[in-house]
Write a structure and sequence with these properties.
By secondary structure, the chain is of the alpha/beta class. It contains eleven helices and ten strands. The protein folds into two domains: 11-86 and 166-256, Rossmann fold (3-Layer(aba) Sandwich); 96-161, no CATH class. The chain has helices at residues 51-58, 81-84, 102-106, 108-112, 118-131, 147-159, 177-193, 205-211, 229-233, 238-244, 248-254, and strands at 13-22, 25-35, 40-44, 66-71, 74-75, 87-90, 165-169, 197-202, 214-219, 222-227. Helix 5 packs across helix 6.
Length: 256
């Protein structure tokens, strides 16, 4: 990954015929979709639909059995592609180091790679925390933060490298509704502030329709549709409508 620089161009991502099996069970069944530079693209679907496996392929943690993933037309399988484009990951758990302060967590990449002197790292860390509404929290420990604050610290850490592509893995999981709204607002704010493509993997319907430019609905390893939020809402596929309108009370009543 290259040294951070200001305002790098957003990148496009293309997934072509992606297939993956584990122990003879096909999890991804020929996925095809394209993410445009600078857009917020949400991959939405129920648990077990293949979202997390897909994300691991995009960031290079898994290799496909067939198909390919392209960044700006170049395969991520090429040795130098992943190092030439700046990608940042916001993990589902936040993945903060509990033994480090907030400031140390956010500046860890810069410190470990000795990219800037300490005073410059401190300035960058302060700036990125301010961007996610956490100015002045540098000396706090992760244990002192709420779940929503930890997610925002994770976003600030991702911003340090001036990413061209930000990947969010279930960013609102384990959060109360108000904290989830805050995270959605942060994703939208970042879209306006920085030139980056955002790819969000989530089963949170409110988040998806609140932040997405376009949505891909995935189920059992297949893409059911890709479209604008309005197009997805109106899609006639019964599987899509069942997922979008799942109602706990109605389900319980029908099975009592």
């Amino acid at each position: 990954m290259n040294e951070p620089a200001s305002n790098p161009p957003a990148v496009g991502v293309e997934v072509r015929g992606l297939r993956k099996s584990f122990n003879g069970q096909e999890v991804l069944k020929g996925l095809d979709f394209e993410v445009k530079p600078g857009e917020v693209f949400v991959i939405m679907g129920p648990s077990g639909s293949g979202k997390s496996v897909l994300l691991k392929h995009i960031i290079g943690l898994e290799k496909p059995d067939a198909g390919e993933i392209l960044i700006e037309g170049e395969s991520v399988a090429s040795p130098d592609v992943m190092s030439r484009y700046r990608m940042a990951m916001v993990f589902q758990s936040g993945a903060l180091f509990n033994s480090l302060t907030v400031g140390e967590n956010v500046g860890l990449y810069l410190t470990e790679h000795r990219l800037n002197p300490p005073d410059e790292i401190a300035r960058i860390v302060s700036e990125k925390l301010d961007e996610v509404g956490l100015k002045g929290t540098e000396d706090k420990m992760p244990a002192e933060l709420s779940g929503g604050m930890k997610k925002r610290v994770a976003i600030a850490r991702a911003l340090v490298i001036e990413p061209q592509l930000i990947l969010y893995d279930e960013p609102t999981s384990e959060l109360d509704p108000l904290s989830a709204v805050v995270i959605g607002e942060e994703i939208l704010k970042l879209k306006r502030r920085i030139q980056a493509t955002s790819l969000v993997v989530s089963h949170d319907r409110d988040l998806a329709f609140g932040v997405a430019d376009r949505i891909a609905v995935i189920n059992e390893g297949r893409i059911l549709t890709v479209g604008s939020p309005d197009e997805v809402r109106r899609h006639p596929d019964p599987l899509i409508q069942k997922f979008l309108h799942a109602d706990f009370k109605a389900h319980i009543k029908s099975n009592v």
